[in-house]
Every structure is written in C-alpha cells, then in structure tokens.
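Fig. S4 source data, part A: sequence.
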Amino acid sequence: MITRATTLVRLALRNLRRYLRRSLLTAAAMIVGGGLMIFSLSIGDGTHEQWIESGARLGSGHITIQAPGFQATRKIDDRLSVSARSAAEAALRQPGIAEHVVTSVPQLAIGGLASSPSGARPAQIVGVDPVAEAEFSILDDKQTEGRYLEPDDRLAAYVGAGLLEGLDLRIGSRLVLTAQDADGEIADQLVRVVGVFSTGVPEVDQALIHIPLATAGSWLRSGDDVTTIAVLADNSRAVNRLSRSLRRQLADEIDTGRLTVLTWREASPELDAVVRIDDLGNYVWQGIMFGIIALTIVNTVLMSVMYRKREFGLLQALGFTPRQTGGLVITEGLTLTALSGFVGVALGVFLTWFFFRDGLDFSFAWDEDWSFSGVVLDPIILPLFSVRRFVQVLVFILFIGSVASLYPAYRATRIDVAESMKFER
C-alpha cells in the first residue's frame, strides 16, 4: 500500500514537471488566493478583536457575572448578594482562571433620571470602583474636561458630553440622580460633575454617568451588593474556555439561581450579530474567489487528462486499474494545491506582517470617531494571526483541490484502453 502511494506521488510530481507552465499558472492563482485569504482573515480577525475589546471595555467585559434576571430587567432587585459576589471573586482567583483575567471590576448599574434646573434626562447610572474601573474601562481615556473619579470622591459624577449639554451643565455643576432603591422607594442623590467624557457613541454620551460605588450603595441602600462583575480577558479567544471554567467553579451558585455567567456574545447580542455578519461576508467573498480558482484547477487537470489519454491507456495496459488512474489524477491535483497552499499561506503571512504589522490606517475614510452597536472603532486596524486560521485556509485549499480534481479523475477512469492506444491526442 505504501509503495503504491509512493508511486502515485512520484508519477504526479513527474507529470506536474512535464507540464510546468500549466502547473505554474494554476499554482500562481492558488498562491494569490491563499495570500489574499490570509490577509483578509487576519485583518478581519484584528478588526473583530478591536470591536470586541472596545465593546467589552465600554460595557460589561468579555465575561459578565450577574444575577440571572438582571440581563432582562436591569433592575436593582436582580443583583448579586455579598456572598454571591465573594464566591465569584474567589473563583476568578483560582489557578487556570486568574492567568487569563486581565482585571475584573464590580459595578452597580441602574436606570434612573438625571435632573438639573434646565430639565431632566433618562440616565444609565453606574457605581464603580474608581481605581479598578480606570484600569478596566476606556472612559477615562475619553476625558474631554475635568478628571476621572478618584478613591476619595463621594458626591462626584463623571458624565457624558451629550448628557452634560442636554442638562446645560459644566464642571462643578450639581445634578440630582433619581432611581428606585433596594427597598422599592424612589430615592434622590445630589452629585457634582468632576469630569466629562466623549466616546463618539451617542447612546453612551447622552446617558451614561459614573459615580463612586460606595456612594451608589449608600444611596440605593444596597450595601456592598452589586449588579455585575465585569471580567476582562487577555483576548476574546480565551472567553469560551474561561467561561466554562468559571461555570464549573460556580456550579453551586448557578444551580441555586444566585448568579449566572455570560460571555460577551450573550451579554451584547448586537455586537455578536455584527461580528457574525461581517464574518459571513468574508466567507462569501472568499468562496466566490476560490470558486473561480476551482474552475482554474478543473481546467488545468482536465486538459491534462485529455492530452494524456495514450499515457493513461498505457498505464492501464501495464496493470493500472481505472481506480488507480483516477487516484493518480486526484494525487496530481492534491499535490499541486498542497504545495501552492503552503506557499500562499506563507507568502500571505509574510506580506501582511511586513506591510501592515503597524496597522492598516483607515483614518483617511473618516475625520471623527466612527461607531456602531455601542462600539467605538479605531481607524487603525492591527492584523491578528492565529494557527487556527492557517489550518482553516490550508484545509479549505486542499478541499477545493480535491473537489476540483474529482471530475477530471472520473474522466480518466472512463478511458478506453484499446481506443487510447491507437493515437495520441
């Protein structure tokens, strides 16, 4: 069996060398296709990683730990108790989990009303630990006036530029926050604006307010309870593995309904939909491109079969079976696609890294921050390389080569030996 396979490979390589020009033209098409696929996938993955990172830092992290009903209700009644919070924080410190966690932050988020002498606006009020949140969030980097919250702050508020303008406020102005507290009563809290941020996302800038976690707990009578523990992972690819580990560690709390663990896809379905749609668009484009390349392979291998009828007839006269003849044709196609695939992937990685390792700059396309689904987009996109993608591209190229070689191989098995020996076409 090994000897037969070796013979097929040697014959395939010999035939590819005999028709070198045709082989090189087909290989060039596959090399270019493989290189373009690596480029588009690495840029696409880099773009998605940037979107996910921005969404995680602006929202509730790569992984969100919260009470089971909070995602739907957003009410303070559905919050994590002190014991559930302690269990979650202990799980995040466990070996196998802690090394993949960049940081985790407690948050007490509630919908409410922000009022000033100029009017009132609905607001998303989030109580945060100023030190931890500064490491987690991108909001302190989006500061336009004043400063971010500090550990000693009590009646301070960090406010979005849109909300500030809507309420006609400025640095040092007072505003009143109104929300339902843990006892079901309507409670007010007076705060002073110490800083202003602008993310470029209207729904964030016109509603979000950060206040110290201690102030929020006292005002809402929730003590040390929080609504969310937001976890930032070292990269989005570790999220599924990390969430499974957390669910195993917190199985008792999850089973008793004290908390739940959500990935960013579950916590931010809009962002998940955008990433999936963009991925689908990439796959469709690549499918069209490689469909054209597949036709090139079919043409090359089929023409090779048609011009080599006498050769195949002679091989069968010497003992080759029709199945082995077809196997030789498929081996030629696979050998050509395998060699071209490896060269194309290597070339794509090198060119993408060499020319775009510092990022692909799209700043020429827009002057201001561009955003969608609550995510701020950076105009400089860094390519992201992964072994998984390289394997996918190689497997896809080999699959295309195999499928494209099936019909020519079938034609080779149908050659009539006596007829093919009469003359050479």
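Fig. S4 source data, part B ends here. The longest strand covers residues 101-116.
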